[in-house]
Amino acid sequence: MTIEWDAGLRQFHLRNDRISYLLRILDNGMLEHLHLGPALAAGRTYGHLGRRDFAGFTNRLDDPIALELPTSGRGDFRVPALAIEGPDGSTVLDLRYVEHRILPGKPPIPGLPSTYVEADDEAETLELVLRDEPSATVVRLLTTIFRDEPAIARSLHVRNDGAAPLRLRTVMSASLDLPDSDWILLTLSGAWARERHVIRRPLAPGRQSVSSRRGASGHEHDPSLVVARPATTESCGEAIGLSLVYSGNFLAEAEVHLYGTTRLRLGIDPETFTWTLGPGEEFAAPEAIVVYSAAGLGGMSDAYHRLYRSRLARGVWRDRDRPVLINNWEGTYFDFDEERLVAIAAVAREVGVELFVLDDGWFGARDDDTTSLGDWFVDRRKLPNGIDGLARRIEALGLGFGLWIEPEMISARSRLFETHPGWAIAIPGRDRTESRQQYVLDMSRPEIVDHLSGVLGDVLSSAPISYVKWDMNRNITEPYGGSLPPDRQGEFFHRYMLGVYELYRRLTAAFPDILVESCAGGGGRFDAGMLAFAPQGWTSDDTDAVERLAIQWGASTLYPLSSMGAHVSAVPNHQTGRITPLATRAATAFFGVFGYELDATAWTDAERREVADQIAFYVANRDVLQRGRFIRLQGPFDGDGNLVAWMAVAPDRGRAIVGLYRVLSHPNPGPRRIRLRGLDPASSYRVRAWPEIDDATSRANSGTRGGDDLEQAGLILDVDRHALAAEGDFWARILVLEAIG
Ligand code: DGJ
User: Fold this and answer.
1) CA spacing 20 to 30 A to 60: which of 89, 103, 529, 554?
2) What is the pTM of this model?
3) CB 610 within 8 A of CB 581
């Protein structure tokens, strides 16, 4: 990996074995983007990639077609990366090169989550300083290339070197100009309980975007954008991903220009953002991670998974086995007391569960969702011996103890609201909109962050708590920062996020051994920003196995298995009413951070035995199922989506777990093949079905097969047309592959 600086051509070549990222400084000091793609040879000049016989709006031949940091108002009518109102009220910027530095490693971004390196030789960073003279705007543009990944990290800092305030209106973290528009745009979109479905649409002239203005990245769209060639598959072809390490309002946009080029941009949503930058102040934009893959969508996901698992997530839990948990939410909702919880935990312990999580309803007087958020003291009616008393009983059973909190919220019916009604977000003189019967605390105010860090610190130190589920169940309306003057209200949403990150930072620093799972009504803030503090997140409130195939498949586009909470729940499923076999529920939840979310005391003896086997299987294979390479084989968004297959492979390719799922049983199918990937083609693998059932799938595939055979010919499904009737709907099968030389 190198960052090569050619002083003659004024060209920067950021390069590793996989990719090249090229830019150069034009004679007028503007920054031209030359290339993002497969690695190009070092020591060469690539200026020809940028300059063409092209006349843009101004007919000036020094107007490049592709810009590293586009602004508006000077003849480039595409969407800008930066729009900053100067002292004269205009937003025109002429950002010209001032200087650059090449730094070993990767500097952190103050106040914001970001990827990191553990040794300076893992990455190199180009810091470019640009300046607009009339407005005295200085931009520090940091571009990091990682040694081992086809990935670039981009961050941006804007400084005011003048004497008058600047007003930031658009500050995109990444802007990428591509030379053509022959791409399919993929977004991860959906809603509560059906998050991160893969939505594909061809690029077309004009702008296409997804965004959030909710105060959180949201259930509706992931803060990312992927483009892939029309022929790109999971394993072949080009794909480019842009992913924002941020949890608040965002915009992800593609614009196809009249000359058929494409501009991608990703950053804080400009419609809900302005920022006043006083003289001498600097503003840091969130980081964006750009991945280029020549090995299909799967190659792109591999890079995100490795980076996000090992260089974004941090803390002692990053590399540790995550415990198999049982959460009482769907088992009891608000209706529990100490005895009922201990009874659930006792059964769970018998079958091998390692951690008991007490969800919503333990504090204040919360028997439903109308009350008590903000009152973080135990409800002695339900838990007479306090959290400590309960936690110690759970511990005595041999389980860890985890606790649910929702720090950012306040109920109108709470002591906190009685004492501090002004802490709930509101616009003076206007009604507050209630949602889920709760309001949101104004996290932009430091005194509220201080208060929460104090009271929650007390809760976490009051008992042996080894896990926290940090929930966030409603979005922000009437956005208004109580401590911000009227002309700075545009800063509110970002300041809210900075407050949330500060609280996360303080609590995770004070309690480094606690495993934190982020949550926002399921996947309503399941993003790379959260991953920097919470190494796992609750992927969705939808625990239905069939729905989870789509949700986990989509989420895996960017996020690793170690980040995806996945639980087996009771049937009929509480979100869909669907009845799926226990085996299918587990086979789906295995591919993530596994757990149960039900009343374990309701299990029959046969179910207890089955669950015990499931947990034993997961624990024996969780190194692969949490930290292995996840490979999507056939997806819920392919064809009729009826057959889904994926696998997780150990880093040394010695073991692999394959999950096969057939949603509906259609009569009289023909035999089908599922080609595996990621194996050692030269090795032989012993293939066996788990559990060891003597069925058609098992008979057709069990035995010793070559890695090459499994990859080139594949597993054989639906060999026995008559077996299907017995298997029925919602069928799943796990196959275990072990290399035997
Ligand atoms: C939403 C979460 O996603 C659920 O798992 C549960 O914790 C509820 N909130 C509790 O209110």
Assistant:
1) 89
2) 0.98
3) no
